[in-house]
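task queued by scheduler; priority normal; single chain, no ligands, no partner chains; default sampling; output format set to structure tokens
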Amino acid sequence: MKQFKAESKRLLDLMINSIYTHREIFLRELISNASDAIDKLYYRTLSDGDTGLNRDDFCINILPDKENRTLTISDNGCGMTKEELENNLGTIAKSGSLNFKKENEQKEDIEIIGQFGVGFYSAFMVSEKVTVLSKAFGSEEASKWESTGTAGYTIEPCEKESHGTTIILKLKPDTEDNHYDEFLETYTLQNLVKKYSDYIRYPIKMDVEKSRLKGGLNSMVPIWRKNKNEIKEEEYNEFYKNKFMDYTDPAKVIHSSTEGTATYNALLFIPARAPMNFYTKDYEKGLQLYSNGVLIMDKCADLLPDYFSFIRGLVDSQDLSLNISREMLQHDRQLKIIAGRLEKKIKSELESMLSNEREKYEEFFKNFGLQLKYGVYQDFGAHKDVLQDLLLFYSSGEKKLVTLKEYVSRMKEGQKFIYYACGENVDRVDKLPQTEAV
């Protein structure tokens, strides 16, 4: 039995319990590691010439075994030698993916998901024992790494037919509070793949026997990474309705790709109508946050100011780590840069709608104008300059909605004052004695 180099049960417990807030995250982490292993081998096929492999050969398999209470995740990627198993799994928080990225950082088209080297250990949140069988591509020997996560680990030779890595999780017994059996249910596993790993670039399959067939549980190609010119309006609408459980098409689609200080893709939607609970305390704002196509957070509130909380959508950035926690996100510089740019982009799109699609903007304002007005009052008027040109007011003279700029531009010569009244609706305000006096 060997001891972890970055030892102690306390360190292992600390990483698992502080970095990860949900047990189900373990599947996302192991699938991401498998994707990285395939990426490394695929890159090798590109750099070394013909290795007898092509992209269609690669896949990730998930195999639940209820009888033995095991869950197996396997890939046909680069695999690991005994020394690499020792270095990557024997040292907590050491990342083989990060080393690979550093070695090839001058080369393009390398997107490695896992970089902290702690994702693998999330398996111990649900497992009483973890077994790793691995065979490096081009090697004749395979090795088995095994650990219960506390006392240490063992490494010994084993038999494995093909290159790649197989991880076998022996799930913990169920308790009154924790039901680990759920991770052996096909329905649960399919949902977790769709939720967190839908855009992993290799097919994720549930049946090893069909591993040569194309396709899998995951979609693989994120719509937001496609060229905007290649996407039809119907595709955006269908994606929005399926992703965000709405039955009406969005009023506006905002699709942007940004590189530089912060590199990210954003796909945002302005709903055609306000959700039933929008103006209640139950409504939760936020955008889905992805790292290289892998879901980090379902609703990241820090990406949107309150006055734009009606926006639905997602952000995908390769600058963010998969293992980032909510606490770390609040202090993440990249996230703040992205949030600032999104705010400017949303404002710009709304101004464009106001100028070029007036009827559509007025409909939008009926749904969400109250939120923009609240934004002007919020924080003692700190956001007034951002929002004031987006507000509409009913003009008693023109009998329609106008902006303050439009009203001022049509003021009669010599008019010194603008009178305004607040009320439940226009009809009630019209009947006020004060309105009649004015």
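post-processing summary
- The radius of gyration is 27 Å.
- Confidence is low (pLDDT under 50) at residues 112-116, 208-213.
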